[in-house]
Amino acid sequence: MEEKVNRQLYSDLDDLDYRIVKFLEDNARMPFTQIATELGVTERTIRMRVQQMQSDGILSLVGVVNPIKAGIRMQALIQIAVDQNKLDQVVEELMDTYEARLVVLTSGEYQLIIQVFTRDYEELSEFLMKKLNRVDGITRTNVIVELKVLKSRLKFIR
After folding, report:
1. Per the confidence metrics, is the pTM higher than 0.85?
2. Where are the transmembrane segments (predicted)?
3. What are phi and psi of 144, to 5 degrees?
4. What is the pLDDT of residues 13-60, one digit of tens each?
5. Which of 18, 34, 42, 76, CA to CA, is 20 to 30 A from 87?
6. Mind giving me the DSSP string for the chain?
7. Class for the domain spanning 74-145
8. CATH (residue range 1-64)
C-alpha cells in the first residue's frame, strides 16, 4: 500500500504510524490483527502505536453520524458580526446552542462562523428568529444555506 502522506502535519509520526492511520481512516473498526498482517508487524505493535497516538491526542476513533440519515435536512453556515466588547459573551451563548454544530473564530468583517443543522426550513427560521436574533452583541449576520455538499473529507492522508 503506497500512499502519499503529508509529513508536515505531524512530524513526530513515522511511516508506520501513517500507514496505521490510513487503515483506520478507511475503517476505524478494522481489527489490529488484520492491520498487523497487512503491514507485516505484530498486533502488539499496532495496539501500542494506536494507544500512543490516542494518548498524544493525534488520533481519535469515533463514530460519525450521517446527518441525512438522522433526519437533518438543512445545513447552513452563518457569518456573524459581533460588537467587539461582547465577543466572549456571544461565543459562550453560541457554544450552548444545540443547533450550532461548529463555532469558528475568523478574521475579516465577520468575527464568527457557525454551522447549523436543522430538520427543515421552518426549524432554521425558528432558530434564526427566536435564538440567534436574540443574542445580545450580534450586530449582523449572513446566512448561507448549503444546497448540496460536493466534498466532505475528514482524512489527512492522500
Report:
1. no
2. none
3. -120, 110
4. 889 998 999 899 888 899 999 999 999 999 999 999 999 999 988 888
5. 76
6. ----B-TTS-TT--HHHHHHHHHHHH-TT--HHHHHHHHTS-HHHHHHHHHHHHHTTS--------TTTTT--EEEEEEEEE-GGGHHHHHHHHHT-TTEEEEEE-SSS-SEEEEEEESSHHHHHHHHHHTGGGSTTEEEEEEEE-----------B-
7. alpha beta
8. 1.10.10.10
